[in-house]
Amino acid sequence: MTGAVVDDNRSIVDLYAELLAALGHATYPFVDGETFLDALPALFPDLVILDRRMPRLDGLEVARRARLLRPEMPILMISASPVGAAGGEAVIDHFLAKPFTITQFTDAVTALLALERPTAAESPSGASG
């Protein structure tokens, strides 16, 4: 299994990659949402971990755009900022508030990887009319 980690703080990207490695997962590291979205058509991560607040494109916008390309891809958003009324609940699968424990992180990752989501062909946006 492979996870994409998107956070503008490189040390956070490295930390999440280390936690994923401890679970036996490889990581695609990204320090901004634009680079991740540019690379996504060629990548097939089993999970995406996004920071909420990033310069240029915030995590919610990255999640919205990623959903168009990979509707089946589970998205875990991590932030000290609540997703709240910004509509984030519709595009992310789980929100983890900072600070969190390693157990909370691993439980969220494990649960998201167990999700069965529709493929692009099965989703409403991928259906032909």
List keywords for this structure.
19% strand; alpha/beta; 33% helix; Rossmann fold; 4 helices; single chain; five-stranded parallel β-sheet; 129 residues
Summarize the SSE layout with pairings.
Blueprint: E1 2-6, H1 10-22, E2 26-30, H2 33-39, E3 47-51, H3 59-69, E4 75-79, E5 94-97, H4 102-113
Parallel strand pairs: 1-2, 1-3, 3-4, 4-5
Helix pairs in contact: 2-3
**Amount of beta strand:** 15-25%
What is the number of E strands? 5
Structure annotation, total helices: 4
The CATH superfamily title:
Response regulator
Mind telling me the CATH class? Alpha Beta
Quick structural overview:
The protein is α/β, with parallel strands linked by helices.
Tell me about this structure.
- This protein is α/β, with parallel strands linked by helices and 129 residues long.
- The protein has one domain (2-100, 108-119): Response regulator (Rossmann fold, 3-Layer(aba) Sandwich), CATH 3.40.50.
- It has helices at 10-22, 33-39, 59-69, 102-113, and strands at residues 2-6, 26-30, 47-51, 75-79, 94-97.
- A five-stranded parallel β-sheet has the order 2-1-3-4-5, sandwiched between helices.
- α2 runs parallel beside α3.
- The chain starts with a strand and ends in a 16-residue tail after the last helix.
